[in-house]
TrEMBL record:
GO biological process, one term: methylation
Organism per entry: Nannocystis pusilla
A GO MF label: N-methyltransferase activity
Gene3D superfamilies in alphabetical order: Vaccinia Virus protein VP39
Pfam families named in the record: N6_N4_Mtase (PF01555)
Alphabetical list of PROSITE patterns matching this protein: N6_MTASE (PS00092)
Domain DNA methylase N-4/N-6: residue ranges: 67-355
Protein name: site-specific DNA-methyltransferase (adenine-specific)
Domain of life: Bacteria
Length: 611
């Protein structure tokens, strides 16, 4: 172990351009409940979609220091992008292009937020690459204290790597680094044992028992020191010696098959079976768990997915059943999947939409199979959106969105569409707010930008369309953060709907994207309904509008409970490895409102409302 610094020696601290002396406080906006999967009477595990700094601040307000184990697998700052691959579809999962100081400025405050959530007995495991492990370790010394450093583990992912091919002027990089820190000396810990190395087994467990095939090694039964040490002398299996045990014990070992005699007259030895050994205590170099390959059934198509065996080891080593595990860079959802199977509670967070849909699909399937309990889905985006609107103002937000959309400001006077506020406020066609306005023009189309807290309905779209026609516009384009599912019922070729990308709140200059359209058929038989996927259209990889068909859908679910704003799937299905998926729902009784949600291979989410 490294020598610790004393109080008089001070501490080593890493500085970089842009580092602040103390991370700025993060406003803990409330998380919005988006979905419930299953029924829970007490604690509910949580999947949080959004910026982890906002989510962690909100969790701190709600839970306090309640976390027993933190595992995070943040970006490695490799200067490349990572993808979700499903069949022939390849979609960007996240960009890992922070660049030195930016990377540390991203990670540093999040480590501070994570520390505030950890119990005094908690442990944190940070999974990083060789490019940044030295910097991250110094930062963790600062945040958690150098005296709380536990281990730096080298996880050997590959047996060889092609970055050291012929002509390379470097060694092959075949391992990642796990930095393990505790909150204090009383951290939860279980010493695990690893299987013996193959060479060790071949050298020492070289005997194979006839009949059973069990491998064993042998040790002497004779006792050095003889009579002087008080050891008994007698004849056993035709051999007289001083023995370690009394005659009765030796006879019992023989009856139980624990004595090995290579030939008649040879000195007997004691058998030790390989399958009864605990293995060697786990060291800080892990070579027995390999990275996932294409043949592994647990693969979900996520570039940087880690094997469940790796997380199982960490979970069993640093937590106990019932403990709470947190992963703020959830990626493919392996931490949640392993925590559920190991009887731990979990909270996982990711901001990437492809990652979110993969995690949710994986956990929904586990819940259906009984491998995971109920869980709730929360969204941090509404809080981030409100904070952005408060900081910039609605007018500035609207101007930025119009510019990114390639639209110019409306210059033909204020054209408004008055609406009468009704009681139903949504699918009935009445507006929940009194006035809509044309904000811009793109070609022959009028453009409306809904306010950040507005959720346009079918009625709103119809009124805006009438106002656009009255103003002489040939078409209407509506930009919003979120649309009510009823907008898909508007059958108007001249109307297109555009959604503000979630990454817009992170100052990414990405313009609105075309909202995908899910077509459904309702089949009524004997007073009950069944819903069938009929068609699906969305932007293709080039951004052009295309009818992709039902085959592009990888998962869909229905909610017939009608809880406003919270999706509670009564039934869901996913496309299997063979490509098959149910295209019709089970029978649905009653005539109430049913919300259908579908996810395509690119991770895009579409919702429709029936009834």
């Amino acid at each position: 172990m490294p020598r610790r610094t004393t109080a008089s020696e001070g501490r080593v601290e890493l500085t970089w351009p842009g580092k602040v002396p103390l991370p700025a406080a993060v406003s803990p906006g409330p998380l919005t409940l988006r979905e419930r999967v299953g029924e829970a009477s007490g604690w509910q595990d949580r999947l949080i979609w959004g910026d982890n700094s906002l989510a962690l601040a909100a969790l701190r307000e709600e839970l306090g220091a309640a976390v027993d184990l933190v595992y995070i697998d943040p970006p490695f700052d490799v200067g490349a992008s990572h993808y979700l691959r499903k069949g022939e579809v390849e979609v960007l999962a996240y960009r890992d292009t922070w660049g030195g100081p930016g990377y540390l400025s991203m990670l540093y405050p999040r480590l501070v937020l994570l520390r505030a959530l950890m119990k005094p007995t908690a442990t944190i495991v940070v999974h990083v690459g060789m490019q940044v492990c030295h910097h991250v370790r110094v930062v963790m010394d600062e945040v958690f204290g150098a005296d709380n450093f536990v281990n730096q583990v080298a996880w050997k992912r590959y047996s060889a790597h092609n970055d050291a091919a012929q002509g390379a002027r470097r060694l092959g990089a075949v391992h990642d680094v796990l930095l393990i820190y505790g909150m204090g000396p009383e951290r939860t810990w279980t010493t695990l044992r690893a299987p013996y190395d193959k060479d060790y087994v071949a050298k020492w467990y070289r005997h194979v028992e006839l009949g059973t095939g069990r491998r064993f090694m042998s040790s002497p039964l004779t006792a050095p020191g003889g009579a002087a040490k008080g050891n008994p002398s007698y004849e056993f299996l035709g051999v007289r010696r001083f023995w370690r045990y009394g005659q009765a014990t030796m006879e019992e070992l023989h009856r139980s098959g624990r004595v090995y005699q290579s030939r008649p007259g040879a000195v007997p030895r004691q058998k030790h079976y390989l399958d009864e050994q605990e293995g060697v205590p786990l060291q800080d170099v892990w070579t027995d768990i390999r990275a996932l390959q294409g043949t592994h059934t647990e693969r979900v198509g996520y570039d940087t997915q880690k094997p469940e065996a790796l997380l199982e080891r960490i979970v069993h080593m640093c937590s106990r059943p019932g403990d709470l595990i947190l992963d703020a860079f959830a990626g493919s959802g392996t931490t949640a999947a392993v925590a559920a199977r190991c009887g731990r509670r979990w909270v996982v967070i990711d901001r990437s939409q492809p990652a979110f849909t993969v995690i949710r699909r994986r956990l929904r399937a586990m819940t259906q199979r009984g491998e995971a309990g109920p869980f709730a889905v929360f969204d941090a985006m509404p809080a981030a959106r409100r904070a952005l609107a408060l900081r910039l103002g609605e007018a500035e937000l609207r101007a930025r969105l119009l510019a990114l959309h390639g639209a110019t400001a409306w210059s033909e006077g204020q054209v408004t569409a008055r609406a009468v506020v009704g009681e139903s406020g949504d699918a009935s066609g009445e507006s929940t707010w009194p006035e809509g306005q044309m904000h811009g023009r793109r070609g022959e189309a009028a453009v409306v930008v809904a306010a950040s807290e507005q959720r346009p309905t079918a009625g709103d779209i119809a009124r805006w369309q009438a106002a656009a026609r009255a103003a002489g516009a040939a078409a209407l384009e509506v930009i919003a953060w979120v649309f009510d599912p009823s907008v898909h019922d508007v059958e108007a070729p001249g109307v297109t709907l555009w959604e503000v990308p979630r990454t817009f709140v992170e100052d990414e200059a990405i313009g609105p994207t075309r909202v995908s359209r899910l077509s459904l058929a309702v089949e009524v038989t004997a007073g009950v309904r069944a819903i069938r996927l009929a068609d699906y259209a969305a932007p293709d990889s080039a951004g052009c509008w295309a009818h992709l068909g039902v085959d592009a859908i990888v998962e869909w679910a229905i909610d017939d409970r009608g809880q406003d704003g919270v999706f509670t799937p009564r039934w869901s299905t996913q496309r299997g490895r063979d490509g098959a998926m149910e295209s019709s729902s089970p029978a649905i009784a009653g005539e109430g409102r049913v919300v259908v949600e579908a996810v395509d291979a690119a991770g895009r989410i579409s919702r429709r409302a029936i009834g």
